[in-house]
Write the structure tokens for this entry.
Amino acid sequence: MLKNKHILVGVTGGIAAYKIPLLVRELKKAGAAVRVVMTEAAREFVTPLTLSTLSGGRVIVGTFPDAASGSVDAGTWHVELGRWADLMLVSPATANVVSKLAHGSADDAVTTLALAVRCPVVVSPAMDVDMLRHSATQENLTRLREMGYTVLPPEEGELASGLSGPGRLPEISSIVKAVSDALASAHHDLRGKKILVTAGPTYEPIDPVRFIGNRSSGKMGFSLANAAAQRGATVTLVAGRVSLPTPRNVRRVDVESSEEMLQAVIRQSRKVDAVIMAAAVSDFAPVRFTPTKIRKEQLNGELFNLELKKTKDVLKELTRKNQQSVIVGFALETRDGVRNAKKKLREKKLDLIVLNNPTQRGAEIGGDTNVVTIISKSGNIERLKKMHKFDVANRILDRISKLL
């Protein structure tokens, strides 16, 4: 996968930077063309001259490189390299740079380039064990995964501080393999396809401040939208009330209630190639909406009776009105999962259904991983092991790509 590929290596100021010359050499030996960018702090551990000699090209240091010393324009170097690259690798990625990447900061050469590239980005964190385990770093790494970055887990062992634990830069061979694997999965098989994805919960209002809802985080749907966009699709995401950033190159439509979800799905599903219904649409809604806040003093006794009605079945309405698109549904079941999922698949005339059980370890609502079973209308059943939701999304899209 590396032969004739264009690889950007972003080096940041961690002590593991001393290993990067060996990494550059191995990437070159595998047939890749390599360009290197560095933060100013990285120069404390490895010199630009060393990396320039091994890569065979100019090394960019700082946001405003010297225009007279290289072949790219000093003002647009990040744009030129961003369009040149097939993949960018940030290694080692310090806690500081991980934080910057997670929040879109661009105050050095590495983070500026990471925002400008159009290719996959692999981040290889390396830092002391306590820095890695800090809740802020863990939240930032999770955010990077949700944004579509590939995060290569650090290895365990003796660290430069003398402590032992996770935080070591992986072996050079492991990093090269991760780069190769990322390139292998960075195909654009959905280029030219239009895909609609739904995500998150719906809220059914009781009064101006209260609602009936569910615990859906929207992470699975957002991962699907993100992965589909990375594979070249034109993606529209209809999202319920979630606190997730919109994936790159995805058009987002926000809704709140099941009725709003239904109307948005029907409207947005015209002339799309596939619809992936990952949203957790409420099954029930209050019969009446109270325009003012219900106060406890208004109640008779200790009980409050709330009358509910069934909401419209968004998936059923969609398949009734849309016969030309590939339709994928989700089934959340806590018992008799396969049997119930097959019934839903058949009754709602779906092409695929994705089954998961939130009581199963690794598939909890709101988690970053999922354990799913993909069932096709032909009866084929594929059980996936626990994996990150972004990886699950790509496995689902593999199946959709074949149907398209």
The longest strand covers residues 87-93.
